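Try this one yourself first.
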């Protein structure tokens, strides 16, 4: 009986010791690295979700942020072209003919130290595309807009934002019927 009581006391002592040794981990706190506005500058790899109506498409794209301008070297225009050119074969030929389309998105930044983020307010410009169809050029102007701010997050050094192609003008005439094209970048990692 004495051996059993000693064994129980020894087990209780070991469990108590282990409990006290693990409590020292509770004092660890995450200390965020303070952000600067210039931290936004850099090259990014992003997941782009493009949606129009009930259809959506995802792909990985690259862009650069520098001096209050985000530059897309290859802006996705497939949904824009297929909205203008209804024939899928002609639309694909027009996309190939257009090649890579560069688009520059201006922004202003504001530091939010409470949440350790840089808030981005966008000033989108219209995107002009000369879409070739049947030997002619359809001069297309896409009005892009942002509905909310974007963010550069200090926790993981990622950027998040979205754009919408609100309306499309073809040779000076508004395209109707037309469903808004949304470009969402839920996460982009700085290289």
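Now uncover the answer:
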């Amino acid at each position: 009986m004495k051996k059993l009581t000693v064994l129980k006391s020894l087990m209780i002592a070991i469990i108590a010791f282990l409990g006290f040794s693990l409590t020292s981990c509770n004092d660890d706190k995450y200390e965020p690295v303070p952000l600067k506005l210039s931290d936004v500058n850099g090259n990014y790899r992003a997941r782009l979700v493009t949606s129009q109506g009930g259809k959506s498409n995802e792909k990985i794209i690259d862009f650069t942020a520098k001096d209050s301008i985000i530059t897309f070297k290859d802006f996705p225009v497939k949904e824009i072209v297929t909205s203008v050119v209804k024939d899928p074969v002609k639309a694909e030929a027009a996309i190939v003919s257009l090649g890579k389309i560069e688009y520059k998105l201006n922004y202003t930044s504001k530091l939010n130290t409470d949440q350790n983020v840089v808030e981005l307010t966008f000033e989108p410009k219209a995107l002009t595309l000369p879409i070739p169809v049947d030997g002619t050029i359809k001069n297309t102007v896409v009005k892009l807009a942002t509905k909310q701010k974007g963010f550069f997050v200090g926790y993981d050094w990622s950027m998040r934002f979205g754009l919408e192609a609100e309306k499309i003008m073809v040779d000076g005439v508004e395209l109707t019927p037309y469903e808004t094209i949304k470009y969402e970048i839920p996460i982009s990692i700085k290289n």
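Discussion: The chain is about 20% helix and 45% strand. The chain has a mean pLDDT of 90.
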